[in-house]
């Protein structure tokens, strides 16, 4: 992780994941370690101590951009407390096969759960805009997002306006591409069309502007937030930054000084582990997307999750790919293909215990088409009511069984048994364990590998 050769196409989707990635590149420099470690601030993730959710089947991270005005610098407007000016739910899939980053509109109405006091005051719960949860601390934002999505979060990272500006300035600015001039006096934004380098103040204004884009709503600006994040990622991982020790150190110092994280991410070692997962994901498999929404019935100026949003959140909970309308999967990377081969390395035997003609053969064909090695099919000696999935007590067999259930769309978890490889026994309930096919999710989205002008 100390090697400084970064391929241009290895781009990350969010500013906060990039912090971890670049920090990981210099952790061997022990002189910097203690200085940077001392910069990091922490806050409680939950009001009560509890075991962190298991991350072996995917890690879920909440990124919070705070709009607090309680800052040293002026010029951010008036206001009390803090709200999440941006909120991104990031899912890093098991095996680091993909990263899905879902932007949750700040104007989303949600029935927020009550929050105990973790140092920011308590909240009794009730319907409110989701961005207001941060006023009671990150733990309240975590609870609100978990309630909205059903996704259990492992970590959070928060950054404020000043931190954002200092990070961009430490990078020497970032390149952006605007299809048309953008002017918004309220956001202090005045930029021409075309390719240009912007400083931290302009980058923040571009990410925050409402009145220079679309209908002036929060939804309209999310696309520009995606572009700004991609620009910061590209600059942070470029040779222009990594080859200059002064700029690299300035960036790392600004980044770590700007973060507030949960205790589980409070050390450079923790951030390095997160960076390793993010770095392993091919840029073609990193996707920004906006939470599908519809106007709130009680207030047309607010939004609520649509039916497509529930489908999207279900995919994150199940650690399965999000099927996006109007997109193609594209060519798999060598690393992804190698990972899939490993997931399918154990032999699979399929048995028909339901007395349905050709049932085992039909499933064997589906499994073979997905790249599994089917060692044989057969009919069970007696009828079996329940469909079961058995796997040997080896990592290879367990991984193959999990991949088989996912790719055949079966709601099954492997049971460890004294067998060789994997065995799928199809019982009379085989249809009830087949999950319904999901319709493609319609929402704006952007791949990390996409051009800034795209």
UniProtKB/TrEMBL annotation:
Residues 441-454 have a biased composition (Polar residues). InterPro entries: LytR/CpsA/Psr_C, LytR/CpsA/Psr_CW_biosynth, LytR_CpsA_psr. PANTHER family: POLYISOPRENYL-TEICHOIC ACID--PEPTIDOGLYCAN TEICHOIC ACID TRANSFERASE TAGU. It comes from the Bacteria. Residues 430-454 are annotated as: Disordered. This is LCP family protein. Belongs to the LytR/CpsA/Psr (LCP) family. It comes from Glutamicibacter halophytocola. It holds the Pfam family LytR_cpsA_psr. Residues 83-237 form the Cell envelope-related transcriptional attenuator domain. Transmembrane segments: none annotated. Residues 347-430 form the LytR/CpsA/Psr regulator C-terminal domain.
